[in-house]
Amino acid sequence: MTTDNTRYGGDRTWATFEAEALPHADRLFRLAMWFERNRQEAEDLVQETMVRALRSFHRFEPGTNCRAWLITILQNVRRNRRRARQRSPIMDDAGDRIAAAPFVPPIPQTLTDEEVLAALSRMPERFQEVVVLCDVEDLSYKEIAAALDIPLGTVMSRLHRGRALLRSELASMNGSLTRERANV
Amino acid sequence: MENQEVDPLGTTLKRAFERAPGLQPRPEFIAGLTTLRPLPTAVSRTPRFRATRWLTIAATFLLVGIGGYWSFEARLSADPLREAAIGDHRYCALGLTTNGKEATGITSLAEAVSRYEPGFRVLEDEPGDEIPTSDGPARVLNRHSCVFGGRRFAHIILDYRHTSVSLIVTRGAATRWSIHRIAAHEMTTARWNDLTVMSIRTAGYAVFVVGGLPASELSPLAGALSADLRRVLPKE
């Protein structure tokens, strides 16, 4: 993992990069791990993201959200890799299911982290992406649109539908547990 | 930031992401990213700078090694499972409800077995309702399953030496490092404020005995429970 000094900008660039970008490596890894479900793949993804980020660090605008910038690079790397693997697009019927959900149930407080993540993982990936980038990574709609290379309106509609789908899933997981608790 | 509404869903998801053991990076991987640092190239052909370069690489490896080991040690000493078990004892067995913390998702063991964790089945009967120890018997007061700190536990509350003691079992997320450590120290003991917690890890589960007794008084019970549970808990 060594790099070329002349291409990547030297010690001053490195010092800034080390202070601005490297502290986000943990969260970047969690994101990569969530989407790839494979530790080796996630590590490769984060490493390639960091190499690309360092190479183009002169283009990063100081004072803007560095994590959002890194996530955009990570998503670009993911997209390129997926294209290379020629994966078929993910098909789902989530839209129909959402249309049938008439209310917004509350978030159950009785589920474990594993159960919450399992519910999230059952959602179509396009909804997972926006929900995770918004609710876990705190990116703005605009930053999500840039990271995923989709229009702003699509971000908002996917977020709305993704959250509703997840709430509905969590509520149904919690349903019988609540009834049972009343009997204990 | 234009974001917008504060959504409790976000808090729930963020917490799950930050705590999920499977999503955490290896400390040595994170430490290894520092080797992306550019090395001098224009002058590296001279012996003096070649030596410097090798020294830099050696120092980096040394730092990565020390950093990685330190991170593992820090992670082990923090042990989130143990902290969650202590919290479960305080906020479930002792019934504390301060600081907005409480055990939730309380259900029967049978329900937990059918819905969440089949491995808890053996705990419906084991340990028996009276556990003999060298310091007198412990008696089971209650068996149930509950959630604390994002973990689902089987929770058995015992009366032992006139105090409430918790036997808490959860699916373990032992790393190869902690497994190595377990081989050397089969039962670990820690104090947290006025509580003693004794940890026993089997191949697939983490088992905790938590109570307000000194370690010397709690260990006969922990020893008796440990022998029973190692025998009956599923290995994976």
Write the layout of secondary structure elements.
The complex is a heterodimer of chains A (184) and B (236).
Chain A: H1 5-8, H2 10-20, H3 25-36, H4 39-55, H5 66-85, H6 94-99, H7 113-121, H8 125-136, H9 141-148, H10 152-183
Helix pairs in contact in A: 3-4, 4-5, 5-9, 7-10, 8-10, 9-10
Chain B: H1 8-19, H2 27-32, H3 47-78, H4 80-93, E1 104-107, H5 109-115, E2 130-131, E3 138-148, E4 151-160, E5 163-171, H6 176-184, E6 187-192, E7 195-201, E8 205-211, H7 215-232
Antiparallel strand pairs in B: 1-3, 2-3, 3-4, 4-5, 5-8, 6-7, 7-8
Short description:
With 184 residues, chain A is an all-alpha fold. Chain A is built from 10 helices and no strands.
How would you describe this protein?
The complex is a heterodimer of chains A (184) and B (236). Chain A has 184 residues and is an all-alpha fold. Chain A contains 10 helices and no strands. Chain A has helices spanning 5-8, 10-20, 25-36, 39-55, 66-85, 94-99, 113-121, 125-136, 141-148, 152-183. Chain A is globular and about 55 Å long. Chain B has 236 residues and is an alpha+beta fold. In chain B, 42% of the residues lie in helices and 24% in strands. In chain B, strand 7 and strand 8 form a beta hairpin. The longest helix of chain B is centred in the N-terminal third of the chain and has 32 residues, at 47-78. The model of chain B is unreliable at 1-6, 40-46, 69-77 and 174-185 (pLDDT under 50). The chains are: A mainly alpha (184), B alpha+beta (236). The interface between A and B is large, with 56 and 48 residues.
